[in-house]
Amino acid sequence: MKLLRYGPKGMEKPGLLDAQGHVRDLSGVVPDIAGDTLTPAGLARIARLDAAALPLVPGVAQQDLRLGACVGQVGKFICIGLNYADHAAESGLPVPTEPVVFAKWTSAITGPDDAVEIPRGSQRTDWEVELGVVIGKGGRYIAQAQAMEHVAGYCVVNDVSEREVQLERGGGQWDKGKGHDSFGPIGPWLVTADEVPDPQALDLWLEVDGRRYQNGSTRTMVFGVAQLVSHLSQFMSLQPGDLISTGTPPGVGLGQKPPLYLVAGQTMHLGISGLGEQRQRTVAA
Fold first, then answer.
1. pLDDT tens digit string along 178-213?
2. Helix H or strand E encompassing 88
3. Cα 200 from Cα 275, distance rounded (Å)
4. How many CA atoms lie within 13 A of 266 on its CB side?
């Protein structure tokens, strides 16, 4: 299934994308694409529905129908840094021996096509296409062999970053440079795990103003999805609706020679095979 949230910002309703590409309203069935809806039982309930019998939502998704973040009420937005060896190299940093973990504030979350703000005074705002993993079954101390049982599905994430704050003003902590409002576009939809047989075989890409900068594959992750879910659960409980952004392949602005960063008025276009695409216009904060 492809689950989504549609409507004006702050007033999104739950929905799904049917086989014909039409949005169907789920608000009579579930309160949101969040929490218990994302548990195995919650997803099974939606899977049993006849999509054709659900109310048809007028408009075309991502054209004249706005989509919000595909997961609502996210409890934790957990990110993994330097999870592609070639991205670590372009950043001038060693390949980590265990996952580098940081957080994005949930106030950074926005829809897949909403504007991205360039923070006041920023000259080093950067892009990062990433595979997002949404937790469905909560747990702690999850064994790697059982980790995939805890995944509800996957989505596209743009881990927008302010490099000066991240690398020069954080005292070794990246969070300040990662959490600006609008720095976490998510979606367009949550593709349930049953439709993604191998999350380590997905192509991902990003363009700025029509020029392709990132062109990678989750095959080259240092730590795969199962490893990350298991690892994180050793340090925190994972709960339904938590989001893990799994790192970016090479081609970020920081890695260009010379480095190249976003300014207001540009367009980012990014996607992951089978998970949909995002398109954001940059604006001044």
1. 999 999 999 999 999 999 999 999 999 999 999 999
2. helix 85-90
3. 13
4. 17
* CA atoms of 74 and 161, how far apart (whole Å): 20
Q: Which of 12, 278, 268 is nearest to 117 (CA)?
A: 268
Predicted TM-score (pTM) of this structure: 0.96
- Residue 266: CB atoms within 10 A of its CB come to 17
Whether the CB-CB separation of 247 and 254 falls below 8 Å is answered with: no
Q: Per DSSP, which regions of the chain are E strands?
A: 2-6, 13-17, 23-25, 77-81, 100-103, 109-110, 116-118, 125-126, 129-135, 151-158, 161-162, 184-185, 190-192, 203-208, 211-217, 243-245, 267-272, 276-284
Using DSSP's 3-state secondary structure scheme, residue 7 falls into coil
Please give the Cα distance from 54 to 155 (Å, whole number): 23
Q: Tokens 């005074």 label which residue?
A: 121
